[in-house]
Amino acid sequence: MSTVDGRDRRRNGRARRMGKASTDKARRRQAREVAARTTFWHGGVAGLQVGDRLLSPELTNAISVSNYDPIARKNRVYFTTDRQLARAYASLMTEGLGHGALYRVAPVGDTESDPDFPAAGFQARSALILEVEEYDTLLSPSEAGRARQPYTTWDDGRLMWDRRGQMQLNRHMEAYGLNQGHLNRLLPLWATPEEASPILNDHLHRTEARGSAGNRSSS
Question: For the whole prediction, is pTM greater than 0.90?
Answer without folding.
Answer: no
